[in-house]
Write a structure and sequence with these properties.
- The chain is α/β, with parallel strands linked by helices and about 240 residues long.
- The protein is about 35% helix and about 25% strand.
Length: about 240
């Protein structure tokens, strides 16, 4: 029997932000700044994993992608534009409603579901992504297990999450929420995972971590890949062999 991993309070918090999720100057402004950097990492990992030419527009053609904790579709839509058949799942029904409306306006066909990942119809995906989600669930090990169960043989999983360091507590929780860079109550520092902890969870689910990189603030670009992992990091994993 699958373990429920949705935290109702977290779902309600993010559902309340659904209306202006696509506003780059609204409550999700930080996500809009993060998204291009995360997309760059995802594209690099796709190219390396499937030996895709970096100039290829439809890098995910004929592949199925699953974005877990998809919000209103900020990542799901670019994956669809890369040619993937995309499924998005989120704990908040309000986010899914906003995602469906926005995708329709963009002429994109994306399958969206609200609720537990385990409740999705049985299927596996070539690419599984989950950005800034594992720190919000009630049972990280069970959640990672559910993600792994959805990853097809030969597939690629990409996660991002804040690191549990004193710097992240100071900047991501206390300072960012105080100045309104992120809505109050977004982060619970005690739920953040250190890279070695997330790696252990992935390995416990039978996966192999193949890449990890820091995601840090940049005065010139807003955010950048590489360098310090003290605030946030991304991980790529696959089935061994």
């Amino acid at each position: 029997m699958s373990t429920a991993t949705i935290n109702p309070h977290e779902a309600a918090h993010f559902g309340a932000l659904a209306a202006d999720w696509w506003d780059p100057h609204g409550s999700s402004a930080m996500l809009h700044k993060l998204n291009p950097v995360r997309l760059s990492y995802i594209r690099d990992q796709i190219d390396a994993h499937w030996h895709v030419d970096a100039r290829e527009r439809y890098a995910l053609a004929d592949r199925a992608a699953l974005d877990v904790g998809c919000g209103a579709g900020l990542l799901a839509e670019p994956l669809a534009r890369m040619g993937a058949k995309v499924t998005g799942v989120d704990a908040a029904p309000e986010n899914i409603a906003a995602a469906r409306d926005h995708a329709a306006g963009q002429g994109l066909s994306i399958s969206y579901f609200a609720g537990e990942l385990a409740a999705l119809p049985p299927s596996t995906f070539d690419l599984v992504t989950s950005m800034e989600v594992v720190e919000h669930v009630t049972d990280p090990a069970a959640f990672i297990g559910e993600l792994a169960a959805r990853l097809a043989p030969g597939g690629l999983m990409i996660l991002s999450t804040p690191n549990r360091t004193m710097l992240s507590k100071l900047l991501l929780v206390e300072a960012a929420e105080r100045i309104g860079a992120v809505p109050r109550g977004t982060h619970d520092w005690d739920q953040f995972l250190k890279p070695e902890e997330l790696t252990k969870l992935l390995e416990g689910a039978g996966l192999e971590v193949v890449d990890r990189t820091g995601l840090s603030p940049s005065a010139a670009k807003g955010f950048q890949l590489g360098g310090s992992e003290a605030l946030n990091y991304l991980v790529a994993a696959r089935w061994p062999g």
